[in-house]
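name: query_chain
kind: protein
chains: 1
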Amino acid sequence: MIMKQNIPAITAASILVGLVLASKALRRSRAIDLSGRVALVTGGSRGLGLLIARELGSRGARLVIAARDEDELSRAKADLLALGIEATTIATDLATPAEAERAVNAAVWAYGQLDVLINNAGVMTVGPFEDFSSADFDEAMAIHFWAPLYTLKAALPHMRKTGGGRVVNISSIGGKLGVPHLAAYCASKFALTGFSQSVRAELAQENILVTTVCPGLMRTGSMFNAWFKGQHLPLLSIDARRAATRIVDAAQHGDAEVVITWPAKLAVAAASLAPQLTAAVTGLVSGLLPASPASGGEKAFSGWQSGSFWAPQGLTRLSERAATRNNELPQT
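structure:
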């Protein structure tokens, strides 16, 4: 016989199980088949963008990859063809409405429609706040906020014609938590996160589902193409192939948000539940990072120019291998 005092607990557990099952059923009902769908991936020539393109292609999507560097695009196209994935490329800087519209039109001209938009293009400059110029902030906002805004606006009419679509905005843990020495990056990613979450509520009514992705550090090899100001040191990251799979799966199911890696999830939770403690911890971290030098701190060096005893060897060996796989190597 069930004790009366246990009935509320059993009822609560039953409700919780019911909510979980209902949530899973709702997610399954939103799923689309990516086979034959047309996907535009910005920043798709290397790193995470190339990994996402590979995953989309493996699921049967028809691809258009956009980036600024034509040589990188050529290598990325060859990479995809070697995997049996056909892709169209377009060299463009998406920081203007005209170029964003040109990229979207390239997809529509090539395949007749646009179903999936992955806003992945990014740039990262690392250094003390006092070494950043206004131009650094302008660049970060142009690539991380204005470019996704412009491409989304250009894509909407085409998605409406086909009755819906999927949009994925690749933000960052730096779009939820301020990180020392990443002021410009975080400012622009916070803007993208807020924008992405806001428009999801509006566009969902038209079956255009927007997913906000906030990854932690990933081993794509992109650290070598980041820019460092002041005195600089290498960063460590984790493998991104599973992250790309998770991102494409989230797009396929129209998930609202994805925070990738458990450390990133814990950091977001800590910032929400204990903001003062989180601020104190990040302050301690900031104190351990290299300070601005007496002169020359405003000069930026790429990750490939930021070598030390630890890089490009030792702790960064896995990132070097990822850079080789994901088209992040510098070309001579």
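note: DSSP finds ten helices and twelve strands in the chain.
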